[in-house]
Each structure stands twice: as structure tokens, then as C-alpha cells.
Design a protein that fits this description.
The complex is a heterodimer. By secondary structure, chain A is of the alpha+beta class. Chain A is built from 5 helices and 13 strands. The radius of gyration of chain A is 19 Å and the shape is globular. Chain A starts with a helix and ends with a helix. The chains are: A alpha+beta, B alpha+beta.
Chain lengths: 255, 760
């Protein structure tokens, strides 16, 4: 509950700020990079339910497609249920704060799993856990506004994100294109520890659902490995009521 | 034609010199474009199945090439040692071109815990207390996923595996890794090894050797030339030929984009030794003519007309010998053979232009050493000539017995070759290799690529059977694959119960375990299983470079593959050890083909030159005997037929035949002048014999310089070629005249001379 209030508070502040910005019209000089980043985070719904299709395409062209239903609430609750391919159908994944559980239908058992790390690949895809996670970017990165540029026919702020704590950071730098009026991510470049370009994320479809600009299709290209991952969100429900008890291990075992 | 050429050079000597200087500077700039290539894999023909799968494995699994770092710590399980490993692991991960690094401090473990499973690093926080360290030691040393893989059985040595990205510049990566490993601050002995490292090490050694040996070869040539001619010009002019030849040849390679390979490294030394020969023959004959009282112009013309043809023909046969390497399926042998052949041609051109032009410009030297009646060499050759001609049959019997004795060694030749012997014993690279071999079962990784539905329990079980068979092969280390990972996962999911250390029974189970592993983003998985679950890899290390043992291993693995897998699954054995084996095979086989081709080319040329089947065959006798001797020596001295020794025979044929040609050329010339067979042979032995002697000494001693090479096979090549040159030149001055004498003594009385004889 506390989270919700906190979140709404930020949202409120953000909305006020947004209005102020709007009033100041195109005078971009007055807004800072960090403010834009925070604003982008405010533009996320508190909870979502969606069906997500993830396609990983290897350099050589081979594909792996997985479909899953995802329930998300606040910063801490995620439930994933795999729908396809058939040999993993019913497999469930639950994450509450820092604890993760997995349900394997073949064993009919729930197992707590440990060892997930932010920098690691998310299910073998080109996204890392940090890329898909719900953690706040503004907490980890200092953003600097580099300028405004048209990207995909939209006016975008270009932000440069540098990690506040370089030691635990998985990227040395990010360059992020954020839609100037909708405040959603349009494109992001990720740089590795050598400062070389590692990955680029492109948002190719967005949809406004209940005043939230949701990403419908995002593609992550790993320029070093030559692979890419496409995530398409289907049947997105924004801010549905999800009870907390949805996010427990008993629920995980249910088909 | 030769006369016209000589007159032309005599007419415009300065223009020719300027033109050659300009062309030389043009080729000199080509040297800058010369690239060095030492990537062994790239030299294997693309259509080789092991190569194709290797490339595929390289792409699919993020690198099929590994380097290994060995840390001799005395005690791995101490806080200090572990920190050192951890630090080096992190540093190695940062090296550009490195895909992954695996060591005891970052390896992941799947652990079954109460109600859960952990996919965590084996060592999270480095333990400080003695009790914790001993507990860790016990845990690690009792697990055969780690023992002999990343920690030695005695717990003293740690191994770090470094996977190199598919398209990385291996030379650069290895040199950067080396820098990390040799960084001061590391307290313990740390070495870098692995097949990629050995390859590069060998290249570096070869280049270093050549940088050292090339000046030495030049020095030796200077000595021989001074000994032969005793004056400044006699030394400088022939050396000029070879220097210009090397610049042109290498410059041409640069412009054509043909890279320098480990083998072509020795090209300059070969060109120096061979390129000098024509100069020696021409200079010697020129002096002989001058001493006979001819003026400069006339003497030079006579020299070129008489010796020029022999020089032309010997260059052609030498080119034929090297050119025969052009049939090799390996690009590195091919370009070495073809460009050395081109270099020999260039040397001939330079000799008849630049060299000749200088002779025209310079005044003939008064004290002509060769041709001087009183030399010791000529005196000896005269006695020799008498002996050979007077006792032709005895000479042939002695030669026959000698050849038979040496030739009996041929069946003793083994095709065994041990690549590790290419490295000097006692060197750091070889000792690192031995440490890995003794403690981790080898530094080379074989890969078995499996293509099919890997999640199918049938396929997994077949992999397990194959792995069990591989474990039985003595030269292979315990194999690792997704099978091990799935068994461990199964055990972990059943609270660590050892009874469950078995493969999952259904496809669903396997698929869900893999999903579990991929949730953790386990890097280990990527090295064993392609992300679409269609390709899996079994990896094991080989502890020997011995060809025969590798051959047996390959046969056993391929037998097991046929036994356990059906047609729906494609299983191919690959990896650098397999590629090296294939390459070795290709070289040796290709060499034998080249050898036959070289003999045929030489025989054909001899027939054309002598315009007679019989004389052609007789002239080929010395070189055929030399080849028999070459292989006989290999047998008696237990020199295996390997990459290095197989190349020798073709080189020997191309160069060694020259002496017989020079000999026969002069013999014919003397007969044409109306001399009797006996006289003609004696004159030839005592006059051309000197040039042959100096020529053979130049080539032989030039190659002998290679005995100072650090790589044993190179050194061997040096003395073997020197020895065969000695033998070939001796045979040309004993066996050949004896044979010619026996054939011609009654047939040829006196014939009319040619135009030069008449104009005398």
C-alpha cells in the first residue's frame, strides 16, 4: 500500500511538472535530464497484465519464440506463466521483491531459485534483467540532456545516462531517446565496460492505453553478437486490480 | 637468342641498371602492404567437413577457440590464492575479443537446497577463515565437474579457460592475454597456453629466427663468395642479385595481397641460397673466358651463350620443383611454392639484366681466381676426374652400395608426428603445455557438434553414452556438455539427492530444466547449447599431439557416434586438434603428390634439354638417388614424415637437379668442340666442377644456417637440405660422368664443333 501511495505521489508531482513544462512550451533548456528520466518512469502504470511474445533471433537466423502471460504490480511483484512452446507450457515464475520461485509442471513442484543477477541475460534473450526489470533508472543513473532530435517522426529528448555507482553498473553509458510529449522511451543505446556500443533498443510501436503510452513492440539488437530479440506485447491491461495474493507460491502451482 | 640478349645488355647497361633500380623501389613500397597471417584454421580448405562444422560451432557457441591460463599457486584454497585467481579472471574478462572466462572463482553451481534450488557462483564471497577454506576445498575436490577441469587434483594448480570470440583477431587477443598474465603484481607463476597460443608462439619464434638467421645467411654467402672469387665485386654483385630478388618477390606478394605465412617466412633464406647460384656460374665462367684471353665483350657473350642456357634451365627446373607445391590443397603451401618459384624466375631475370649490366660496365678483374690452374680445388678435381672416368664401374658400384645401405632406411620412416616437438624443449610454452597436460588432461579442445532436437531424451541419452565412451579414451579428459548440467539440475531439484543425478526422462522435463537454467542467464549454457536447442556441444581436452594417437581417437569417437546416434541427428567431430590433424594429413599427402609431380617435371625437362630419353634419364639419376638418400636418412635417423620434413623432398628435387644440368651442358659443349668423351668429362669435372662445388656450397651452407633456428624441425630442414645438396652435387660429378662415360665411350668419337668452336 505504501508503495502505491509513494507512486501516486510521484505521479502527482510529475503531472504538475509536466503541466509546467507544457506551459513553458518548447523551452527545453529549463528541464534537466534527471527530470525527464523521472517523468518517463512516472509514465508507467502501477500494474499491468499482458501477453508477451518474445522472439530471439540469432546471428545465423535461427529463432526461438516464447509466449507468456505476465502480471506486474508495483516495483516488487511479477508473475509469469509460459504459454508456449508446448514443452514448457504451464511453467511459472514468481518474483516478490528479491525472492524468486519457479514452478515446473513436469515435476509438479515449486522451487525457490536464487542466483538471478541484474546484468545477466533475461531468459537467454538480448535483454538483461535490468533492461526488462521494474527498477528505477533514475535511482541508478545520472541523466544529462544532450539535446532534442526528431526520431521516428517524434520529437525526442536525448539523454545521456551515466551510472551513479560505476562499480555495480552493467553499462558504462546509455543514450536514451525519450518522446518529448509522451515521455516514453523510443530508442536506447547501451555501452559496455570498454565504452563500446553493445546494444540498441528500438521501440517501433506504442499505444496509448488509459493515458499511458505503452510500448507495444520493442526490438533489442546486440551489435556485438549480431543477435536480436523482439518483444511484442499483446492484450495489455493497464492498472487492473490485482490482489497481492495473486503473487504467492500457491497461485504459482495453479494451472 | 642468348647472344642477342647479351649484346642488348652490353649496349644499354646504364639504362638497364636505372630501370631495375626504379622497379626495385616500386616493389620496395609493396613490402609495406605485406600482411602476416598465422591463423591456421583459415588455411584449411573451406570444403573440409570438419572445418565447416568448426566454423559453425565457432559462430553458434560464441567461439570454438580457447586459451588457457595456468596458475601454479602451491595451494589454490587460500584466501590469497583465490583473490589472485578472482582478480586475474576479472582482468581477463575485460580483454577485447574475449567472450567468456571460466575459473574457480566465477564458475556457477546448481545446488539443491531445502525447498529450493540455487544457481550461484561456486565461491560467492572469498572465505577468510581456515575452516571455511577447508570446507570449500573438500567440496570442490570431491566434485569431478571441477577436478581436472579448473583445479588440479592435488589442489595446487588452477586453470582459467578463456573463450575467444569468433571474429576476433586471435594474434591481438593472445598478445593482450599474455600481457595480463605477465603483469607484475601476480605473485605466482602464471602461464598462457592452448593450441592458439602455441600456433602464435611458433610464428613469433619463426619470425624472430628469420630476423636473426637472414643476416647470418647473408654473412655465410659473403664468405662463400669471397672464398670463391677473392674480390669485392665477386661478393657484392651476386649478393645484389639476391637482395633485389627478395625485394621484388616480397613486394609482389604485398601488391597482390598474398599474406606471409609461417612457412613463407623461410622464403628469403631459400631465395638467397638459390638466387646466388646463377651469378656464381656466370662469374666463374666469365673469369675462365677472360683467363683464356678473350676481351670483356667477347668473354661475356661466350659466357652467356655457354652458361646462360644452363642457368635458364636450372632456374626452370627449380621453379618446377617449387611449382609442384602449387597442387597442394593448402593455401599456405601453395603460395609458398608458387612465390618461391616466382622468386627463382626473378633471380634469373635480375642475373641476366642487372648483374650482367654491371659486368659490362666494370673492367674485368685481372687476377681471375677461378680458372687459375694452380688452385687446390682444381687440382683435386683433376685427380677426381681421372678416378671417375678411369674407374667408372667402381664408382658406380660404390655409389650403388651406399645408396642401397641408406635406402634400406626408407621402410623405417614413420608418419608419426608430434606437433609439440616443433617447440624447443624446456621453453616456457612447452612447460606450460606440460603442466596443463599432466594436471588437466591437455590444452586442446575437441568438440563434438550435435544437431537435432537436443531436448529429446533419446538424443540426450545418446550423448551420455558417447560421453561415457569418451571417458574411456585415455588421451581425452572427462567430457562436458549439457548432459552434465541437466544431471546436476535434476539432482538439485531433488534436494541434492545423488540418486537423481541422472538425465531427465521426458522432453517436458528437459525443456523446463533448460528454461530454469536460462532464467539464471547462465553463461555456461551458452557454451554447450545453442539458444534454439538445435545444436549441442560435447567438449573434451586432448593430451597429445601425436598423430597416431589422435588418429586412433578420431576413429574411436566416430565409431561411437555411429553406434549411438541415428540418422535424424547430425553429429560431427571437430575442434582445433581435428583441424590440425586434417591439415597435417593434407600436407603430408599433398607433399607426396608434389614429390611425384616434381620428379616427373624434372624428368620431362631433362628429356627436353638433352633431346633424348636416355640422356634425360641419365641426368635424372643423381637427383633420384638424392631423393632416395633423403628418405633413407629420414628412416635411419627416425625423422618422422611430418609437415616440415615432407616439404624438403620437393625443394631438394628442384634445386638438386641443377648440378646435373650444368654438368651435362658443359659436357655437350666440350663434345661439340670436338673433344673425346673422356676429355670432355675430365674438362667438365675440373672446370664446371668448381662452379658446381661453389654453387652447392652456397645453397648447402645457406640452408645450414637454419640449424640455428629455435624450432627443431627448421633446424632439421637446414642440415637435411645441406646434406642432400652435398650429395646431389657429388653424384652429379661422380655417378653422372661415370654413367655418361660408360654409355658414350664407344658411340661418340669426334663430331664437328658448333659455330663458336669453329670461330675459335
Amino acid at each position: 500500500m505504501l508503495n502505491q501511495i509513494k507512486h501516486m505521489g510521484i505521479m502527482g508531482v510529475g503531472m504538475v511538472m509536466g503541466l509546467l513544462l507544457f506551459a513553458a512550451s518548447a523551452n527545453a533548456q529549463e528541464v534537466t535530464g534527471n527530470e525527464i528520466l523521472e517523468k518517463e518512469e512516472v509514465n508507467r502504470p502501477y500494474s499491468t497484465i499482458m501477453i508477451s511474445e518474445m522472439t530471439i533471433i540469432h546471428k545465423a537466423g535461427a529463432k526461438r519464440v516464447r509466449k507468456m502471460k505476465i502480471w506486474m504490480k508495483g516495483d516488487d511483484y511479477i508473475l509469469v506463466r509460459f504459454l508456449s512452446p508446448s514443452n514448457v507450457k504451464g511453467t511459472g515464475f514468481l518474483s516478490v521483491k528479491d525472492d524468486d520461485w519457479l514452478y515446473l509442471p513436469a515435476l509438479r513442484k515449486v522451487r525457490r531459485i536464487a542466483g538471478r543477477e541484474k546484468g545477466k541475460s533475461f531468459m537467454g534473450s538480448d535483454f538483461s534483467y535490468e533492461d526488462v526489470g521494474t527498477d528505477s533508472l533514475a535511482d541508478k543513473y545520472n541523466a544529462r540532456l544532450l539535446g532534442i532530435e526528431k526520431y521516428a517522426e517524434r520529437d525526442c529528448y536525448i539523454l545521456e545516462l551515466l551510472p551513479k555507482d560505476t562499480k555495480g553498473a552493467i553499462y558504462s553509458k546509455q543514450k536514451r531517446w525519450v518522446d518529448k510529449t509522451r515521455f516514453n522511451q523510443m530508442k536506447t543505446e547501451y555501452y559496455d565496460e570498454h565504452g563500446d556500443l553493445l546494444k540498441v533498443a528500438y521501440v517501433s510501436e506504442v499505444k496509448e492505453i488509459k493515458e499511458f503510452w505503452m510500448t507495444k513492440k520493442i526490438e533489442m539488437q546486440n551489435v556485438q553478437k549480431g543477435s536480436k530479440t523482439i518483444i511484442v506485447e499483446e492484450e495489455v491491461e493497464v492498472n487492473p486490480e490485482i490482489a497481492d495474493k495473486m503473487f504467492n507460491t500457491r497461485q504459482l502451482e495453479r494451472k | 637468342m642468348l647472344e642477342r640478349l647479351t649484346l642488348w645488355v652490353g649496349k644499354y647497361p646504364k639504362t638497364i641498371i636505372v630501370a631495375i633500380v626504379l622497379l626495385t623501389s616500386f616493389f620496395y613500397f609493396g613490402l609495406n602492404k605485406l600482411e602476416v597471417s598465422s591463423d591456421v584454421e583459415s588455411m584449411i580448405p573451406e570444403n573440409d567437413p570438419a572445418k565447416a562444422v568448426y566454423d559453425q560451432v565457432d559462430e553458434t557457441f560464441g567461439g570454438a577457440k580457447f586459451a588457457m591460463v595456468v596458475m601454479d599457486l602451491g595451494e589454490v584454497f587460500s584466501a590469497g590464492s583465490l583473490r589472485e585467481i578472482d582478480q586475474l579472471t576479472l582482468e581477463l574478462e575485460k580483454v577485447k575479443g574475449v567472450n567468456s572466462v571460466r575459473s574457480i572463482t566465477n564458475v556457477e553451481e546448481i545446488r539443491g537446497v531445502e525447498g529450493g534450488i540455487e544457481v550461484v557462483e561456486l565461491i560467492g564471497q572469498i572465505p577468510e577463515s581456515e575452516a571455511e577454506l577447508r570446507e570449500l576445498q573438500k567440496r570442490v575436490l570431491s566434485n569431478d565437474d571441477y577436478v581436472g577441469q579448473i583445479v588440479s587434483e592435488n589442489g595446487r594448480i588452477a586453470l582459467i579457460m578463456v573463450q575467444i570470440l569468433p571474429n576476433a583477431d586471435v594474434v591481438e587477443v593472445i598478445s593482450n592475454l599474455k600481457e595480463e598474465v605477465n603483469k607484475p603484481g601476480l605473485e605466482h607463476k602464471t602461464y598462457l597456453t592452448g593450441e592458439a597460443v602455441l600456433d602464435i608462439e611458433m610464428d613469433t619464434m619463426l619470425s624472430k629466427d628469420m630476423a636473426k638467421l637472414l643476416p647470418l645467411a647473408m654473412l655465410v654467402m659473403t664468405g662463400i663468395l669471397y672464398f670463391s672469387f677473392r674480390n669485392f665485386r665477386g661478393v657484392v654483385l651476386p649478393l645484389l642479385i639476391v637482395v633485389v630478388t627478395v625485394i621484388w618477390t616480397m613486394g609482389l606478394m604485398g601488391y597482390l595481397g598474398v599474406p606471409l605465412t609461417p612457412i613463407s617466412n623461410i622464403m628469403p633464406i631459400i631465395l638467397i641460397s638459390i638466387g646466388i647460384a646463377d651469378g656464381i656460374h656466370i662469374l666463374a665462367r666469365y673469369r675462365e673466358e677472360i683467363s683464356l684471353g678473350w676481351d670483356k665483350r667477347k668473354a661475356l657473350t661466350r659466357t652467356i651463350v655457354f652458361v646462360g642456357m644452363a642457368c635458364f634451365l636450372t632456374s626452370i627446373t627449380t621453379m618446377g620443383g617449387f611449382g609442384s607445391l602449387g597442387v597442394s590443397s593448402l593455401s599456405l603451401i601453395r603460395s609458398f611454392g608458387l612465390f618461391t618459384a616466382v622468386g627463382v624466375g626473378i633471380a634469373l631475370i635480375i642475373t641476366v639484366t642487372l648483374f650482367l649490366a654491371f659486368l659490362f660496365l666494370l673492367r674485368p678483374h685481372k687476377r681471375a681466381f677461378i680458372g687459375n690452374e694452380k688452385t687446390f680445388l682444381q687440382g683435386t678435381l683433376r685427380k677426381w676426374a681421372d678416378f671417375v672416368v678411369d674407374r667408372a664401374k667402381t664408382v658406380l658400384i660404390i655409389a650403388g652400395v651406399l645408396i642401397l645401405a641408406v635406402g634400406l632406411g626408407i621402410p623405417l620412416i614413420s608418419a608419426e608426428s608430434d606437433f609439440i616437438n616443433f617447440l624447443p624443449p624446456g621453453g616456457p610454452v612447452r612447460s606450460a603445455y606440460n603442466v596443463v597436460k599432466d594436471n588437466f588432461g591437455g590444452a586442446d579442445i575437441i568438440q563434438i557438434a550435435i544437431k537435432g532436437n537436443i531436448q529429446d531424451p533419446e538424443v540426450l541419452r545418446a550423448m551420455e553414452h558417447l560421453q561415457n565412451d569418451i571417458t574411456e579414451i585415455e588421451i581425452l579428459s572427462k567430457p562436458a556438455s549439457i548432459v552434465n548440467l541437466l544431471r546436476n539440475t535434476n539432482q538439485a531439484l531433488h534436494e541434492g539427492n545423488p540418486e537423481y543425478k541422472i538425465l531427465p526422462e521426458t522432453e517436458e522435463e528437459a525443456a523446463q530444466y533448460l528454461l530454469l537454467l536460462s532464467l539464471g542467464g547462465s553463461g555456461q549454457l551458452d557454451n554447450m547449447l545453442s539458444f534454439n536447442y538445435q545444436h549441442a556441444l560435447i567438449q573434451s581436452r586432448v593430451s597429445t599431439y601425436k598423430i597416431s594417437e589422435r588418429e586412433k581417437m578420431i576413429a574411436e569417437i566416430e565409431g561411437a557416434i555411429d553406434k549411438y546416434f541415428d540418422d535424424t541427428t547430425e553429429v560431427v567431430l571437430t575442434g582445433t586438434p581435428i583441424l590440425a590433424y586434417r591439415m597435417d594429413n593434407l600436407i603430408v599427402k599433398g607433399q607426396l603428390q608434389s614429390l611425384v609431380l616434381a620428379i616427373l617435371i624434372v624428368l620431362m625437362l631433362m628429356v627436353i634439354i638433352s633431346r633424348s630419353l636416355v640422356y634425360g634419364a641419365l641426368c635424372a639419376v643423381p637427383i633420384i638417388l638424392t631423393v632416395i638418400l633423403n628418405f633413407g636418412i629420414m628412416g635411419w635417423f627416425r625423422i618422422p614424415l611430418d609437415v616440415a620434413s615432407a616439404v624438403i623432398a620437393s625443394i631438394v628435387i628442384g634445386i638438386g637437379v641443377d648440378y646435373a644440368i650444368h654438368f651435362f651442358n658443359r659436357y655437350k659443349e666440350e663434345l661439340a668442340l670436338g673433344k673425346s668423351v673422356e676429355q670432355a668429362l675430365k674438362i667438365t669435372i675440373s672446370n664446371t666442377g668448381q662452379a658446381i662445388f661453389y654453387n652447392a656450397a652456397a645453397v648447402g651452407l645457406g640452408f645450414l644456417v637454419l640449424v640455428f633456428a629455435s624450432m627443431p624441425p627448421m633446424a632439421r630442414m637446414g642440415w637435411m637440405i645441406a646434406l642432400t645438396m652435398l650429395f646431389s652435387s657429388m653424384a652429379s660429378m661422380t655417378v653422372l660422368p661415370a654413367l655418361l662415360f660408360l654409355r658414350d665411350r664407344y658411340k661418340i668419337k669426334t663430331q664437328g664443333g658448333n659455330q663458336y668452336a669453329k670461330s675459335n
